[in-house]
Amino acid sequence: MALLEIENLHAGVDDKAILNGFDLTIQAGEVHAIMGPNGSGKSTLSYLLAGRDGYEAQNGNVRFDGADLLDMEPEARAIAGMFLAFQYPLEIPGVTNMTFLRTALNAVRRGRGEDEMDPASFLRMVREKSRAMGVDDDMLKRPLNVGFSGGEKKRNEVLQMAVLEPRLAILDETDSGLDIDALQTVADGVNAMRSDARGMLVITHYQRLLDFIKPDFVHVMVHGRIVRSGGPELAEELERSGYGAYLGAETGGQGNEVGAAHA
Amino acid sequence: MSEAKTGIDRETVDQVANFGGENYKYGFTTDIDADKAPNGLNADIIRFISAKKGEPEWLLEWRLDAFERWQTMQEPDWAHVDYPKIDYQDLCYYAAPKSMEDGPKSLDEVDPELLRTYEKLGIPLQEQEVLAGVRKVAVDAVFDSVSVGTTFREELAKAGVIFCSFSEAVKNHPDLVRKYLGSVVPQSDNYFAALNSAVFSDGSFVYIPPGVRCPMELSTYFRINEANTGQFERTLVIADRGSYVSYLEGCTAPMRDENQLHAAVVELVALEDAEIKYSTVQNWYPGDADGRGGIYNFVTKRGDCREARARISWTQVETGSAVTWKYPSCILRGDETVGEFYSIAISNNLQQVDSGTKMLHLGRNTSSKIISKGISAGRSSNAYRGQVSVHPKAANARNFTQCDSLLIGDKCAAHTVPYIEAKNISAVLEHEATTSKISGDQMFYCRQRGLDPEEAVALIVNGFCRDVLQNLPMEFAVEAQKLVGISLEGSVG
Ligand SMILES: Nc1ncnc2c1ncn2[C@@H]1O[C@H](COP(=O)(O)OP(=O)(O)OP(=O)(O)O)[C@@H](O)[C@H]1O
Ligand SMILES: [Mg+2]
Predict the structure, then answer these.
(1) How far away, in angstroms, is A100 Cα from ligand 1 center?
(2) Residue B478: CB partners within 8 Å, gap ≥ 6?
């Protein structure tokens, strides 16, 4: 059974169509990358998968581990193993990073019918994982994301992912705003989590990230659907020639021909 | 705001709006025979209360004097609260469990039904049970109009600390009571203080002798049980020179459809170099989701830093009551005295809160600090009212005020009413205020990490209150954190 199976997904916000017949299947163990111009619907897709309020599917199916994903509350999806690294992580004043990590991990474990982790093991585990992500003790004690730099927020998202050990991780532009060293750190963190049991969906604008995190598949998303899929070489091609060809074709026809032509 | 966002906010609103009285965990009644005064308020009722308590003549006179003044006073109407007129003649001013008729007994003799009540409330009146905890806490338990028992008295007595019910203090330490009663909150201070002075029934009395650091936390637990009965307790805490005490009060009441009146007076006196930390976890029954029932909490609390370098710190977590009218204040009379006020006030459903503090700078080099966190949800109203006043002789006074409001949903209201009055140009007064909302995005972020909506709200609100929660004695901080979550609980999950 596929880990994630998206079929003919149509969705919009405020009556505005954003996803137009989106299809994607991710098997456990695979890393997929989605690239596409601004506004093509990449974040919308990730919000829809994570269950953000206001993002409704008008049509189509999403199965996560066989279950009907669109029927589940956001926290139930998290408990089932869906993780979204936010493009814009939120600040929560007064709640330390550490408290947030512990609350989240315990909520997820409770939801899975597991015992909460004892404080000593938790502390050891977080220390170890945060060292790997270059998140120091001071950042663990600070209120969540408050005053964190852009890059710190992104590293912190990956730390949360490492602590929660999801089955499917969606990374929405986690590489944006990272300096070169941080990019390496984040990529190392993500690569360390690659496993046969886990799937990843990496949304990015830059081929450079894909040099560090080698995807199994690369998809081009335009106007709410995948118009072309390929291997890592597709990312290099896009880096050279941009989205012009896809955009032109999309606005010229109904878009179906383009998808068909490259399928 | 985009539709998506409004949608999320609306959901948050619904969750908290769904919280009705049924979530109140302390709403049970104790079935016990009570000895009650007939309803109504007149000089005879006051004589009846005084006689029940076997009080000396001077105290009866003091009560009657207060009653006379009260009759000439008007109920205040300046606060941001709205409630039907109270019929003071239709209330009972004295109710005591029959078994307590002969005054407080040793804990072994207390009616088991009463002990069970406190057990259910999580307040152990058995000393050995308390010993199992991290630190010892001595408890005075007040049930309706009387104190039913005080723990750890002997151990405290060894340190010279007096901790007993107010009635016992009148009997055993009349000089102290006479010297300090009404010295911080005079009989005619305000309408409710005057009423309390006339009819107060019981409460706690604390005296810490010079140079003594009280060896344990002291606490009083107030419980209103009887219907149609007002609770009018009186608390007096005296910290003599160079002493220290940390004191905590908690309050709950059964769920009843009628409103109940609670008009307490708390007086604190800190002498030279003494320090009093006074914490309150107020969880009176707030009424149900439609605003039926609940306690009217009209309380006067004031501390007097009477001599040099005295310090008084108020910390309050206010989650209960239908209407709260309460301004714990500090008189900074001595030079270099320090007053602090840390407050969390949560209002949900139709609760109304008008609370804050007064810092009265009289001595030289005095300083005060005010941190107020107001959280409004449902259709509630939450007002912070604060006064900082610096008198002409109070050179170099300092005040820092921070006043934050958090709104959950868009049907509630928050008001901030600061009065600042500086009559000495050397004063340095700072005031910061913020108003924020729990955003749908924050909720989604938390839920994406596995928290259900209730946990998410509790986490965000606890974060918002962090500066204040940190000031509670450790033993109660965890309790208070849970209470913050519970009082905003929705019916989801
Ligand atoms: N809540 C919303 N209300 C109205 N329009 C929205 C909303 N969310 C997204 N959109 C619109 O949907 C389209 C897709 O947005 P989305 O954020 O999914 O794009 P993206 O592919 O992630 O772009 P980027 O590469 O810039 O991050 C955009 O035109 C955007 O303006
Ligand atoms: Mg995006």
Answers:
(1) 28
(2) none
